[in-house]
Specification:
The protein is an alpha/beta fold and about 220 residues long. The chain is globular and about 45 Å long.
């Protein structure tokens, strides 16, 4: 059994199969958003740095939910931001790009990192740098067949799509070899947060969780 804490966190992400991407217009309602998603069965979420007060929100979420909920940080563009987010309580780091300093900073503090990549060369390069999972972004321009094509010669890669993930495509992504799905606007709807429609958000989360279970048989 692997007792590496970084591996354990990565395995929790893979086991859950779904990362809810919270990209909100304000900090207000973020804890309620996390709670609504959790009530629908989602156990992993990333709060993006583009959300106002993101670090404070991460700290508050960790304090509120403890270890029952895996809270990470998204939209990280440099190593310093990765460190500050981890200090605030982020358990994993996600970036839209592949930067060596982000990978190094995350690993120095014992946290897994998902850099954003688009081409086979970028994906392999990020893996060689030690990336724990690869966020293929924006995946909606490529589709699930792209995963099949890449994994044929490089089956060891751990790919997760972001962009183009919704209830109609989830099964296809898993069938193509995705380890987990990153889901933003199709799941974490800004209008639901703004109108405080927490039940609607919980119901939508439950649909996604059920779809992941169906996809995995």
């Amino acid at each position: 059994m692997d007792h590496n804490p970084r591996t354990a966190i990565s395995n929790r992400i893979i086991d859950s199969g779904l990362v809810a991407i919270i990209r909100a217009d304000s900090r207000e309602g973020l804890i309620d958003t996390c709670r609504a998603l959790r009530d629908g069965g989602i156990t992993v979420a990333e709060i993006t740095m583009t959300t106002p007060g993101a670090l404070e929100a991460i700290a508050a979420a960790r304090k509120t939910f403890g270890n029952d909920y895996l809270i990470g940080v998204g939209s990280v563009l440099d190593g310093d931001t990765a460190r500050r987010a981890i200090d605030a309580g982020a358990e994993f780091v996600v970036s839209p790009v592949c930067r060596e300093d982000v990978i190094e900073a995350s690993h120095e503090l014992g946290k897994p990192v998902m850099p954003g990549c688009f081409t086979p060369t970028e994906i392999y390069h990020a893996t060689a740098l030690g990336a724990d999972l690869i966020k293929v972004f924006p995946a909606n321009h490529l589709g699930p067949k792209y995963f099949k094509d890449i994994l044929a010669p490089m089956p060891q890669l751990k790919l997760t799509p972001t962009g183009g993930v919704d209830l109609t495509t989830a099964i296809d992504w898993f069938a193509a070899g995705a380890k987990a799905l990153g889901c933003g606007s199709a799941l974490v709807k800004k209008d639901m947060i703004k109108s405080k429609n927490w039940k609607g958000l919980t119901d939508l989360a439950a649909q996604f969780v059920a779809k992941v279970k169906e996809a995995r048989g």
